[in-house]
UniProtKB/TrEMBL annotation:
This is Integrase catalytic domain-containing protein. Residues 297-351 are annotated as: Disordered. Residues 18-177 form the Integrase catalytic domain. InterPro entries: Integrase_cat-core (IPR001584), Retrovirus_Pol_polyprotein (IPR050951), RNaseH-like_sf (IPR012337), RNaseH_sf (IPR036397), SH3_Tf2-1 (IPR056924). Transmembrane segments: none annotated. SUPFAM superfamilies: Ribonuclease H-like. One of its GO terms (biological process) is DNA integration. It comes from the Eukaryota. GO terms for molecular function: nucleic acid binding. The lineage of its organism: Eukaryota, Metazoa, Chordata, Craniata, Vertebrata.
Length: 351
């Protein structure tokens, strides 16, 4: 319980499935706590995992689950079709019954990230970092004007050449790259429809091939800094890392590095497990394998005599008003620092 782990994080990289066409696999998240700009305080971010294209929707505040579903339908589904899978964190909108029922009726798989493992939705997290950097560059001195730059932020992101595909999102979806300035050349004759489809399919096939190469490179690089994935069985006891858990103890430096042991209920996927946590622990029971450590029963004189060894009581978690039941899911666009004197349907994912 008290030892710091000295080995590489466990669990080789578990890749999400590679999409075969644009807008079939999406990632969604929110950027919140922004300064008020034209009555907007947050951004709904939708990312296409195939083309890396994004939609940035300014909102007056965090929406409900039904409002989130309506936003997706009105701004994504009706333009690009109904997707196969949507990856999200465990925000209140995405764990509600309304969200799951809405997508289930449309035949869309709901994929939630595992506990304290934001890398599951890494493409969306990375896109949010790029959008935040763009807005910070143009709005650091006039922070209440970010909403007027949001459209150009989306246009710029969709015009950037992606290293994973070798194409811009516009090229991957439309088959061509729109110019940032008015087109001065004379338009050509109307091309044949079959030529347009062949060209689009060629672009998508090229993007899919580049995505495969990029994922293999990503896996090789990530696995260099990770150890082999341990194989846990249902019923086996494991320790749970306190790296992302706040305990009701006065000093974190003297607090245990692991709590438990807890029994494994089932294996969600090769790198994610569901634990049997006490009822008083208001955190989601699904965790990435890098946060787990096998438990080996200690041998003491009492156990040698046949008596049952007393297990230490479990520490209390810090009461955070129920927010511990899900991940810290909101991204805040912090203002720049001033210089001066001296994170199948219904299954959790884990990458």
């Amino acid at each position: 319980m008290s030892k710091d782990p000295r080995h590489l994080p466990a669990g080789k990289l578990f890749l999400l499935p590679i999409p075969s066409r644009p807008w079939s696999h999406l990632g969604v998240d929110f950027v919140t706590d922004l300064p008020t700009s034209r009555d907007h305080t947050c951004i709904f971010v939708v990312v296409d995992r195939f083309s890396k294209s994004c939609r940035l929707l300014p909102l007056k505040g965090p929406p409900t689950a039904l409002e989130t579903a309506e936003l997706l339908f009105n701004h994504v589904f009706r333009y690009f079709g109904i997707p196969k899978d949507i990856v999200s964190d465990r925000g209140p909108q995405f764990v509600s019954r309304v969200w799951r029922a809405f997508l289930t009726r449309l035949g869309v798989a709901v994929s939630l990230s595992s506990g304290y493992h934001l890398q599951t939705n890494g493409q969306t997290e990375r896109k949010i970092q790029e959008i935040s950097r763009y807005l910070r560059t143009f709005c650091h001195s006039h922070q209440n004007s970010w909403s007027q730059y949001l459209g150009w932020a989306e246009y710029a992101q969709n015009s950037l050449r992606q290293p994973s595909t070798g194409l811009t999102p516009f090229q991957c979806i439309l088959g061509y790259q729109p110019l940032l300035f008015p087109w001065s050349a004379e338009p050509s004759d109307v091309p044949a429809v079959d030529h347009w489809f062949r060209e689009s399919e060629r672009v998508w096939d090229s993007a899919h091939h580049q995505l495969q190469r990029a994922l293999h490179r990503c896996r090789r690089t990530a696995d260099l800094r990770r150890s082999d994935t341990p194989a846990f069985q249902p019923g086996q006891k494991v320790w749970l890392s306190t790296r992302d858990i706040r305990l009701r103890l006065p000093c974190r430096k003297l607090s245990p590095r692991f709590i438990g042991p807890f029994s494994i209920l089932k294996q969600i996927n090769p790198v994610t497990y569901k634990l049997q946590l006490p009822p008083g622990y208001r955190i989601h029971p699904t965790f990435h394998v890098s946060l787990l450590k096998p438990h080996y029963p200690s041998v003491s004189p009492s156990t040698e005599r046949g008596d049952r060894a007393a297990e230490p009581p479990l520490p209390l978690l810090l009461d955070v008003g129920g927010e511990g039941a899900r991940l810290p899911t909101r991204h805040t666009l912090a203002p720049p620092k001033k210089s001066g004197p001296a994170m199948g349907p219904g299954e959790e994912l884990g990458t």
